[in-house]
Amino acid sequence: MIASIATTQSMAQTLLATGHEGQRVTELYKHKVQNVIVAGTGTVIEILEGEPQQCFIVRLANNQVLQISHDTNRAPRIATLQEGDIVEFRGVYEWTPAGGKISQTYSVNSEMDSGWLKHRGEIFQ
């Protein structure tokens, strides 16, 4: 399945990272796949400064790290975010040398394409 995504990156597919989250995201990273919608859960290990993006690094269950770039012009900021917090996410995976980045964590025209962050039971979209 991952190989077909790597060769047809324009396909609108969702890879749910839950359960085997690290394995799926690791495959995306390994094949340098871009623009794939993923969902998963990670632990915040670092909060980065930035505007209008709220950026932070999460570690997945398999120890892979991802940067989350949450556009606060399109969705509310997570004011109470702290290192050690668990964050669920859905957004677009972009390959980077450091492990990958999740962006577009906000509501768009269709629910199928919409991303979000979930922190302490509250959805930020």
Q: How much helix is in the residues? A: 10-25%
As laid out across the biggest beta sheet, the strand order is: 2-3-4-6-5
Give the percentage of residues in beta strands.
35-45%
Order of helices and strands: HEHEEEEEEE
List low-pLDDT spans: 1-20
What is the gyration radius calculated from CA atoms?
13 Å
| SS class | mainly beta
Residue-averaged pLDDT: 82
Explain what you see:
The protein is mainly beta and 125 residues long. It contains two helices and eight strands. A five-stranded mixed barrel has the order 2-3-4-6-5. A hairpin with a 4-residue loop joins strand 2 and strand 3. It is globular, with a radius of gyration of 13 Å. The termini are far apart. The N terminus is likely disordered.
